[in-house]
């Protein structure tokens, strides 16, 4: 007979198991592709080339094999009828804390910020929660890839490009580190005492200079090997940036802040990407001269300056395109109240830009190919091209229209689950009200 203490132990174990189940989503990651798949008769939005109004795409072993008007299915191929459907590359959220933050008002569910101002060694990808409830919601909106960045007051840490499906962060990892996140906007003077603010800014930049110089000496000593060097994780994390192997992803919106960031990067010979970029058009010549791309921090933003037109944020992508500046469009990423929970709205930020002057093709590219190129993954994803990963979405309409639904999705050829807590609640309450109406 089981004793009382053993019953208590069993009940405790059951309670822990149930709690663990309730805290995680129940979507099972997709199985590796085992057969060729042919999507036939769909509108193929290739992005890097002209759209095929009625065409086919064949992929096998996680890679796109062929894209054409007509493709004969090979032996063992699974044929998907794409009549009336649209095929796009999987959308890319260019800057977010998706997987690092669950519920904004519950601090225990947030792992996006580290204490202190200088944390270049923080690795965002190791903290990503593969069981986040927000990942399936983002997938349902077409987001198959996300550039995940830690937050913080200045040197935020290392960013990573993550696929939105997998059992572990190792399965999800596409590129890590992708770069180093920096909040340059924290150098913008905010108080009335401009001299004091300028001094604080100069002191912080001098401190950063000294640290980069130290990292350079550290790297040279490690390469030389003539003296024994004690490993330093913070200095080690700066080396890919100093070697231009990875860029700085600098948050900057004001003209003075953008110009300061570019001047600093040029002076130190660092690769740079601007995130935010509200005043980027005012710095167009500078950004073009040094080939600095911009990740637009969403289009649903309030004007930054008192004298701005109400639609300044809405027209920013079109103005960047006209100025000849490379750009991508992000959704409600870092610093937004909704943050990662609204990553699913990325297509509507791009659609808003279309309503204010950007072409539809450029809007789609800003969420796919342009984003991939800026993040350093353009050789693998971002367009429907033979040889690239079969990371695709199938929609029942134009992805820029709110009525459109993503009805099928693949990440490296794996069919992913498009259900989420949203769809679960929809089905639940649909049943509830259908019964009440009888």
Describe the structure.
This protein is of the alpha/beta class. It folds into two domains: 27-89 and 382-438, Urease, subunit C, domain 1 (Roll); 91-377, Metal-dependent hydrolases (TIM Barrel), CATH 3.20.20.140. 34% of the residues lie in helices and 21% in strands. The strands form two sheets. Strands 1, 2, 3, 4, 5, 14, 15 and 16 form an eight-stranded mixed sheet that branches. Residues 14-23 have low confidence and may be disordered.
Concise summary:
The chain has 438 residues and is α/β, with parallel strands linked by helices. The protein has 13 helices and 16 strands. The protein folds into two domains: 27-89 and 382-438, Urease, subunit C, domain 1 (Roll); 91-377, TIM Barrel (Alpha-Beta Barrel), CATH 3.20.20.
Descriptors:
438 residues, alpha/beta, Urease, subunit C, domain 1, TIM Barrel, eight-stranded mixed β-sheet, 16 strands, globular, Metal_Hydrolase, Metal-dep_hydrolase_composite, signal
CA-based gyration radius: 24 Å
According to DSSP, the number of beta strands is: 16
CATH class of the largest domain: Alpha Beta
Main β sheet profile:
8 strands, mixed
Multimer state: single chain
Strand content: 15-25%
Structural class: alpha/beta
State mean pLDDT (0 to 100 scale). Answer: 89
String of helices and strands: HEEEEEEHHEEHEHHEHEHEHEHHHEEEH
CATH topology of the largest domain: TIM Barrel
Low-confidence stretches: 14-23
How far the N terminus sits from the C terminus, by CA atoms, comes to: 51 Å
Helical content class: 25-40%
Total count of helical runs of at least 4 residues:
13
The CATH level-2 architecture of the largest domain is identified as Alpha-Beta Barrel
Number of domains: 2
The coarse silhouette is globular
Keywords: Signal
InterPro entries: Amidohydro-rel, Metal-dep_hydrolase_composite, Metal_Hydrolase, Metallo-dep_Hydrolase
Protein name: Amidohydrolase-related domain-containing protein
GO molecular function: hydrolase activity, acting on carbon-nitrogen (but not peptide) bonds
């Amino acid at each position: 007979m089981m004793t009382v203490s053993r019953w208590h132990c069993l009940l405790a174990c059951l309670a822990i198991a149930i709690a663990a189940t309730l805290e995680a989503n129940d979507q099972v990651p997709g199985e590796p592709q085992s057969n060729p798949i042919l999507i036939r008769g769909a509108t193929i939005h290739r992005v890097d080339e002209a759209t095929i109004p009625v065409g086919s795409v064949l992929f096998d072993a996680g890679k796109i094999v062929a894209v054409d008007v007509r493709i004969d299915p090979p032996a063992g191929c699974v044929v998907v009828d794409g009549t009336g459907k649209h095929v796009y590359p999987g959308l890319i959220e260019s800057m977010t804390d998706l997987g690092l933050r669950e519920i904004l008002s519950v601090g225990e569910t947030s792992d996006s910020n580290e204490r202190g101002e200088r944390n270049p060694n923080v690795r965002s990808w190791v903290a990503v929660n593969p069981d986040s409830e927000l990942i399936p919601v983002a997938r349902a909106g077409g987001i198959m890839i996300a550039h995940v960045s830690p937050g913080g007051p200045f040197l935020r840490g290392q960013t990573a490009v993550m696929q939105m499906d997998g059992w572990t962060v190792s399965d999800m990892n596409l590129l890590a580190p992708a770069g180093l996140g920096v909040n340059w906007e924290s150098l913008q003077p905010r108080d009335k005492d401009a001299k004091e603010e300028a001094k604080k800014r100069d002191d912080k930049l001098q401190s950063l200079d000294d640290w980069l110089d130290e990292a350079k000496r550290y790297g040279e000593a490690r390469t030389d090997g003539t003296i024994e060097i004690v490993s330093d994780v913070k200095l080690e994390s700066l080396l890919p940036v100093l070697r231009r192997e990875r860029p700085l992803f600098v948050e900057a919106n004001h003209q003075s802040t953008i110009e300061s960031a570019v001047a600093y990067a040029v002076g130190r010979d660092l690769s740079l990407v601007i995130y935010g970029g509200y005043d980027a058009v005012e710095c167009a010549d500078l950004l073009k001269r040094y080939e600095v791309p911009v990740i637009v921090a969403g289009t649903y933003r309030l004007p930054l300056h008192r004298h701005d037109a109400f639609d300044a944020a809405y027209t920013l992508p079109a103005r960047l395109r006209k100025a000849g500046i490379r750009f991508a469009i992000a959704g409600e990423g870092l610093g937004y109240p909704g943050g990662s929970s609204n990553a699913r709205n990325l297509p509507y930020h791009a659609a808003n830009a279309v309503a204010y002057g950007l072409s539809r093709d450029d809007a789609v590219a800003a969420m796919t190919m342009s984003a991939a190129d800026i993040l350093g993954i353009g050789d693998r994803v971002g367009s429907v091209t033979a040889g690239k990963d079969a990371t695709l979405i199938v929609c029942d309409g134009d992805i820029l229209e709110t009525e459109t639904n993503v009805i099928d999705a693949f990440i490296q050829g794996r069919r992913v689950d498009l259900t989420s807590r949203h769809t679960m609640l929809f089905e639940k309450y649909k049943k509830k009200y259908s019964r009440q109406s009888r």
